[in-house]
Specification:
heterotrimer; A mainly alpha (303); B mainly alpha (409); C alpha/beta (274); B: 409 residues; mainly alpha; MetI-like fold; globular; C: 274 residues; alpha/beta; 10-stranded mixed β-sheet
């Protein structure tokens, strides 16, 4: 009987597994390419932009009027910060209080109603919030403060609605932070004769501080990058003002307005939206990194 | 005891005060959702005052168009409309060949042209009905009042128009659907593939951690930046590809990269980090024993993943993907930057077509000065919300179903 | 056994309050239920003033549950019911009308795993005093509390430092100091040394011996030798067939260890189980 010399063990299949692994690796590498792409594109067009416009003027001038070739980013940046801070003024306290309520006080039944509601709020597209800002919030503000004080487009309306938009985000991360504080700390507080409120406010919340800070910073970052609410409600036209009842276009609102219109590829206008995009990218990236570092530090304490 | 003040009453008062504050904050949050939905419903229904641009009685003294025959009706059309328009109608389908009903509806639409001169929202319509009737009688004596649901079948199947009462979202819905299919086609395999690599194959070294951090950062990048990326790379840089010129599609003189393909690719990049992170979580939840069982019977790594790990985690991956996709459906900013068409009346025919999406329409209608467009926008928002609700409900349903199947196996 | 001893134990069994001995806390027919589950069955126990009473027994037989009932910590858990009387300062405090928060200042607790607040050492101690409305000199209170907890010398130069940087044994002594700072009359200790190394454990035991001069102490411990070392009275707990925890025997520590009345006590002490 002839026997062919086939070993009972399989030698490693040469191609099949490796090809698959390489394909999967490329999938993972796509994410790196995306980041590189973003940086490259924003950088390249910004460089073209900064050949025409000096960085100093860009960062310090308070006039943005492309028609007369003035490109100071401060009006746009100022409006962005105004709307974002108004948004945080709404979302931070509300988010913190709702999170405390959810994690320290609410019964199972209440949580089962509240959490889906927050998820729904988080899932509503931003353009719908923009509609809400324009058709409800602005008329409301004009009713309260008078039509002479409040313009039809204003940053306050956009900021307030943006606060509602980022509320679920802030609440969720804050609640995680509060939950991560071990029960033993609450026990210690109660054992010393503290009320639930005293334990929550003076022990648990301070103990969760870096997690809460991370939540706020992430909320701020989200607010800064938000586009549709401000595009619809904040106004179309750069305006350097500290009055939130005036119309003032934000960074994102400007980018969306210009790119939505007629735009030819090799103009300063075209390059300018990338320079603004680069600025936006830097700001949000920095905030996100800080936020994540805070979360990590927080996790290390309680492991 | 003597060193401690008797402050228990005060402490409880403070406690109750803060309880009220916390509860109040929660109520505010819930109330906001309620306000939002009420506001939309308020805008999507209400009385409208409709006035004809040209009264039927000006065409025929009895006001009844049926008394005219086809040739008379066609004559009316030809004498009142521009030559170009007549030519276009004849090109689509010669007027002489059309039925009387069709011609009559054309006359109605184009000559008589009923127009909404004023609209009211739901609250006003219910509470201020008498005031509305009186107002209309005064200001628009020739108009008649009608209660209108701006969300109606005509709205769903009609295409865009320049007047609010004739506006429809068919084109937008088609655009949204086609883009989303592309988005899924790109993002799902790449995203899940990346997650599989990172969880199952990659060793924990600096490079892998770098990729991980990178993905987290990408998930926090504002969506408009993805729009800029798509504009520069897909629309401009890859124009021959995205416009279809490379494949012979599209008229070379008018085609540009602002197509469904470009939009789909851009949104795919946008939701890619979310899909990866979610899939990673799903894979992490698969117990190691399952993998060991696979290896134990001599299966290769990929075989184990394909036949054990993936099916086990597929329900969570699907749920997360559907949620990511529903996020993509609602995205507006990147699509605007890519360049959705401001006004197209022709349905997208292939991935190299110009397009518009539902959120884009909402954006544009809301921005228009005429208040009636707000009503149309509200109706469109309702459609969008129903779509999202259905998707999310479907996601939860399939997840529960697959989990049940898994458990019963 | 002398008749005098017999009489003494007989009296203790019947929980007669002898006017030579002051009972600070008396548990009468204490039962604890978690939902429908009857966790602890009919406990009768006294804590004599300035004495250490130990609760020993294998794990899961309700010792901690009994302890936590005394300062009403059990009611923080969902669906928990405590019936029976807990008499403290002449009042049955097992009564919803009695405010638990005020009780807990006077009956303090030290937990198994040290749980200092992530604040400074100073703030750990001052926090409890402050919310309870302390109106004296805080610095003095902090120092006194740390001295009484045998920690002052080790931390006096670093009061502003975070408490999390102390060692396990130091943290536990800090927790004791913080409990003392609100001037309780009773200190409940739930296995205070079980998470510590032998040396730290020894220091805690020494500390308890000192503390009982000023405080009434009840201590749950797994370690019966520890109970033998530091307690004046010991109660032995077991679970019976229907998983209810109950008190088998209770008496003067030396008597219980040398002459246990119940065979199960004897078996536990001689190491046959547990």
């Amino acid at each position: 009987m002839t026997e062919t010399n086939i070993p009972w063990y399989k030698t490693k299949p040469k191609y099949h597994e490796s090809i698959i692994q390489w394909f999967l690796f490329i999938c993972a590498a796509v994410s790196v390419f995306v980041t590189l792409g973003i940086i490259f594109i924003l950088g390249k067009e910004s460089l073209l932009f900064f050949r025409e416009v000096s960085i100093i003027e860009f960062l310090t001038s308070t006039k943005w009027q492309p028609l007369i070739e003035e490109f100071g980013v401060l009006p746009l940046l100022n409006s962005t910060l105004t709307t974002s801070f108004i948004a945080m003024a709404v979302a931070a306290p509300l988010g913190l209080f709702v999170a405390i309520y959810l994690s320290e006080y609410a019964s199972e039944r209440v949580r089962n109603i509240l959490k889906p509601i927050l998820e729904i709020l988080a899932g509503i597209p931003t353009v719908v919030y923009g509609y809400f800002a324009l058709t409800f919030m602005t008329p409301l503000l004009r009713l309260i403060f008078g039509q002479n004080t409040v313009d039809i487009y204003n940053t306050a309306s956009a900021g307030l609605v943006m606060g509602i938009l980022i509320l679920p985000l802030v609440t969720s991360i804050t609640e995680d932070a509060l939950k991560a504080v071990p029960y033993s700390l609450r026990e210690a507080s109660y054992g010393l004769g503290a009320t639930k409120l005293e334990a929550s406010l003076t022990v648990v919340v301070p103990a969760a501080f870096s997690g809460i800070a991370a939540a706020f910073i992430l909320g701020l970052s989200r607010a800064i990058g938000e586009t549709m609410i401000v595009a619809l409600a904040a106004g179309a036209g750069p305006n350097f003002t500290f009055n939130p009842f005036e119309a003032a276009e934000t960074l994102t609102g400007y980018i969306v307005r210009i790119s939505g219109g007629d735009i030819s590829y090799n103009t300063v206008d075209y390059n300018s939206i990338f320079a603004l995009g680069l600025l936006l990218f830097f700001i949000t990236l920095t905030l996100n990194i800080i936020s994540r570092k805070l979360v990590k530090r927080f996790q290390e304490v309680y492991d | 005891m003597s060193n401690f003040n008797d402050n228990i009453k005060k402490r409880y008062t403070v406690s109750n005060l803060w309880n009220i504050i916390f509860t109040f904050a929660t109520i505010v949050a819930v109330f906001m959702l309620f306000l939002l939905l009420m506001n939309i419903i308020n805008g999507a229904f209400g009385y409208v005052a409709i006035q004809n641009t040209i009264e039927p009685t000006e065409i025929i003294s009895s006001g009844n168009l049926d008394e005219l025959d086809e040739s008379q009706l066609i004559e009316i059309l030809e004498s009142n409309l521009s030559k170009g328009l007549i030519r276009r109608y004849n090109f689509e389908n010669p007027l002489i060949d059309r039925s009387k009903t069709e011609i009559m509806s054309l006359v109605f639409e184009r000559i008589i042209e009923p127009r909404v001169v004023k609209s009211w929202n739901l609250k006003e319509s219910i509470l201020g009905r008498n005031a509305i009737i009186e107002y209309t009688g005064r200001e628009y004596p020739n108009a008649h009042l009608q209660f209108r649901s701006w969300l109606n079948p005509q709205f769903l199947i009609g295409s865009q128009a320049s007047v609010p009462e004739l506006a429809g979202i068919r084109t937008a819905i088609l655009g949204s659907m086609m883009i989303i299919l592309l988005t899924i086609a790109f993002a799902f395999p790449i995203g899940v593939g990346a997650a599989i690599y990172l969880k199952e194959y990659a060793t924990d070294n600096k490079f892998t951690r770098f990729i991980q951090v990178n993905i987290y950062n990408l998930s926090g990048v504002p969506s408009i930046i993805y729009g800029l990326l798509g504009l520069a790379v897909f629309v401009r840089g890859m124009e021959p590809f995205t416009s279809g010129a490379m494949f012979g599609y599209g008229d070379p003189s008018t085609a540009n990269g602002r197509t469904i393909l470009a939009a789909g690719m851009t949104l795919a990049l946008l939701i890619l980090p979310i899909i990866i992170i979610n899939a990673q979580e799903a894979l992490r939840a698969v117990p190691q024993t399952m993998r060991h069982a696979g290896y134990g019977i001599g299966a290769t790594k990929w075989q184990t993943i394909w036949s054990h790990v993936l099916p086990h985690s597929m329900d969570r991956i699907m749920t997360g993907t559907i949620l990511a996709v529903s996020r993509a459906i609602g995205e507006t900013a990147p699509i605007v930057v890519i360049g959705a068409s401001t006004f197209i009346s022709v349905d997208p025919s292939n991935i190299f077509s110009k397009f518009t999406t539902l959120p884009i329409q909402i954006y544009q209608w809301t921005s228009r000065p005429q208040p009636e467009f707000r009503n149309v926008a509200a109706a469109a928002i309702l459609v969008l919300l129903v779509m999202l609700l259905t998707m999310n409900g479907f996601a939860i349903f399939t997840r529960n179903k697959i989990s049940k199947n898994r458990r019963s196996n | 056994m002398s008749s005098l001893m017999e009489k003494k134990m007989h009296k203790e069994e019947n929980n007669i309050v002898n006017d030579k001995k002051e009972m600070v806390v008396s548990l009468k027919d204490l039962n604890v239920y978690y939902g429908d589950f009857h966790a602890v069955d009919n406990v009768n126990l006294n804590l004599e003033k300035n004495k250490v009473t130990a609760l020993i027994g294998p794990s899961g037989c309700g010792k901690s549950t009994v302890l936590r009932s005394i300062n009403r910590m059990n009611e923080l858990l969902p669906e928990t019911r405590v019936t029976g009387e807990i008499v403290f300062d002449g009042v049955n405090i097992n009564n919803p009308k009695i405010d638990a928060v005020s009780v807990r200042r006077r009956i303090g607790m030290v937990f198994q795993k040290p749980n200092p607040f992530p604040k400074s050492i100073y703030e750990n101690i001052s926090w409890g005093a402050k919310i309870n409305g302390y109106n004296g000199d805080m610095d003095e209170l902090v120092e006194n509390s740390l001295r009484k907890a045998a920690l002052w010398e080790e931390v006096k130069d670093k009061l502003k430092q975070s408490a999390m940087r102390l060692s396990g044994g130091q943290q536990q002594r800090l927790c004791i100091a913080r409990t003392i700072a609100v001037e309780p009359e009773v200190i409940l200790m739930d296995e205070p040394a079980s998470a510590l190394d032998p040396i730290a454990t020894g220091r805690i035991e020494e500390l308890i011996f000192e503390l009982k001069k000023n405080y009434t102490i009840a201590i749950v411990t797994h370690n019966m030798h520890q109970a033998g070392r530091i307690s004046d009275y010991t109660s032995f707990f077991l679970v019976n067939e229907d998983r209810k925890g109950h008190m088998v025997e209770y008496g003067v520590t030396d008597d219980l260890f040398l002459n246990p009345k119940d065979i199960r006590t004897e078996e536990y002490i001689s190491g046959k189980f547990g």
